[in-house]
Amino acid sequence: MLVSQAQLMTHAVFQLSIHIPDQNKTQKIDFEALSLWSRSDVTPGYYDTGFSFIRAPDELLELVSALKDYFSFRDVSIS
Q1: Residue environment code for 9-28, b if the CB has 16+ CB neighbours within 10 A, otherwise e
Q2: Are residues 10 and 44 in contact, defined by beta-carbon separation less than 8 angstroms?
Q3: Measured between alpha carbons, how far is 70 from 45 in angstroms, rounded to an integer?
Q4: Are residues 21 and 70 in contact, defined by beta-carbon separation less than 8 angstroms?
Q5: Using CA atoms, how far apart are residues 19 and 44, in angstroms rounded to an integer?
Q6: Closest CA to 60 of 38, 36, 27, 37
Q7: Distance of CA 10 to the CA centre of its chain
Q8: Res. 21: pLDDT tops 80
Q9: What residues pair up with 51 in beta bridges, in sequence order?
Q10: pLDDT (tens digit, 9 = 90+) per residue, 31-61?
């Protein structure tokens, strides 16, 4: 999902990139995504847009997987 100050067109293909800072440089991952929906955000003047990857490089898929793992809730068994 992208949060922006402009409502984006739906069912359109966008050329996007994500910049990942590292200690000495920034890694840039370019990809294409299809906008599926767009609606007003809870913050006035902002919009949320949902996307589906079209051509996602492996680096992007690995990043998404790592972020999903990091931000997921897990059951923890108490021994």
Answers
A1: eeeeeeeeeeeeeeeeeeee
A2: no
A3: 30
A4: no
A5: 26
A6: 27
A7: 16
A8: yes
A9: 35
A10: 999 999 999 999 999 999 999 999 899 999 9
